[in-house]
């Protein structure tokens, strides 16, 4: 009986040791979970149903047709592009088009919730920093 108890104790110890060092997947530098994961909702014109695309970066993916190019545009634009145009900003009244978009999710691990439009020069400039590839705007 003593040998049986010793065998159980050894087996329990081995199970405990085998479990050490295991951890859940994380968003560490291993790249398992992208730090940028966005949902982009585009309305390309008045009366048109919204089109939803997803984009992940590092690695590039999602259902955006050109995720690598969209991620490159996003990286070039940086986090500043998600900040709204200040109300005190003087902008040209050049209308850029009826398109609107919302972007929600995380950018480099930080929460974003931004709205884009093309109603004046400042808003159009902000939109164009990301470009039609990012927003997946259909070619006219």
Q: Characterize the largest beta sheet: strand count, sense, and whether it forms a barrel.
A: 4 strands, antiparallel
In the CATH hierarchy, the architecture is 2-Layer Sandwich
Taken as a percent bin, the fraction of beta residues is 15-25%
- Helix tally equals 3
CATH topology: Subtilisin Inhibitor
Helix fraction by DSSP (H/I, runs of at least 4): 25-40%
- How many domains comprise the coordinates? 1
Number of strands: 4
Structure characterization notes:
There is one protein chain. The protein has a single domain (33-135), classed as Subtilisin Inhibitor (2-Layer Sandwich). The radius of gyration is 24 Å and the shape is globular. Helix 2 packs antiparallel against helix 3. A 4-stranded antiparallel β-sheet has the order 2-1-3-4, with helices on one face. Helices cover 31% and strands 22% of the residues. The protein is α+β, with helices and mostly antiparallel strands and 140 residues long. A hairpin with a 2-residue loop joins strand 3 (100-107) and strand 4.
From the structure above, extract its key features.
3 helices; 140 residues; globular; alpha+beta; 4-stranded antiparallel β-sheet; 31% helix; Subtilisin Inhibitor; disordered N terminus
Topology at a glance:
Layout: H1 2-19, E1 36-43, E2 51-57, H2 67-77, E3 100-107, E4 110-117, H3 121-135
Antiparallel strand pairs: 1-2, 1-3, 3-4
Brief sketch in words of this structure:
This protein has 140 residues and is α+β, with helices and mostly antiparallel strands. 31% of the residues lie in helices and 22% in strands. Helix 2 (67-77) runs antiparallel to helix 3.
